[in-house]
Amino acid sequence: MRADRKKVILRKLQVSDANLMLEWMSNPDIYSKMQYDHKHLDLNKCIFFIKNSWEDKHNLHFAISNFNSEYMGTISLKNIDYKNKITELGIAVHPMYMGKEIASFALNEIAKKAFFELELNKIYLCVRADNERAVRFYEKNQLELEGCAKEHLFAEGKYRDVLWFALRKRNYDEWSRHFENIFM
């Protein structure tokens, strides 16, 4: 099932999103391949995160939602550096919405926000090289592989490689044509 871009929006996180957010954060199939360990989070910590997100100008977190305001995931611009005009991307989709192009749509929307509302120059992210699903997603969505940091992260008892991907504003027009094909 392909996402209908008219039915998916980015909106401010709401306290009512906390239960579904905690579901994906508590799912070992998701958090086990992430850089950050979410398995120790609880509902109160999720609510705290959501409320703090409303005031933080250097970390913008949005719910990926449908027009019924149903929470489908979270997408973030983190560590926004307004001087150097760069930001780190974070994205996680609830498992029941994976494989439906929702993350691709959210990526396109957050790129427009970063480049045209915030006037940033570059969105970057790093992902564990063994997170095959995420790596395929970034490659499919044509983010540029900038490099590999060997043994950069210690997880699950061993050192893991981390891949760095990016999207630059100067490449946005060409890159965004990719999304016209997805959502046609």
Model description:
The longest helix has 16 residues, at 102-117. The model has no long low-confidence stretch (mean pLDDT 87). It contains six helices and seven strands, in the order βαααβββαβαββα. By secondary structure, the protein is of the alpha+beta class. A hairpin with a 4-residue loop joins strand 2 (60-66) and strand 3 (71-81). The protein has helices at residues 18-25, 28-31, 43-53, 102-117, 132-140, 172-182; strands spanning 8-12, 60-66, 71-81, 86-93, 122-128, 144-155, 158-168.
Describe, in short, the structure shown:
The chain has 184 residues and is α+β, with helices and mostly antiparallel strands. It has six helices and seven strands.
Shape: globular
Number of helices: 6
Q: How much beta, percentage-wise?
A: 25-35%
Structural class: alpha+beta
Low-confidence spans: none
Number of strands: 7
Radius of gyration: 16 Å
Core attributes:
alpha+beta, seven-stranded mixed beta sheet, 7 strands, 32% helix, 33% strand
List strands and helices in order, with pairings.
Layout: E1 8-12, H1 18-25, H2 28-31, H3 43-53, E2 60-66, E3 71-81, E4 86-93, H4 102-117, E5 122-128, H5 132-140, E6 144-155, E7 158-168, H6 172-182
Parallel strand pairs: 4-5
Antiparallel strand pairs: 1-2, 2-3, 3-4, 5-7, 6-7
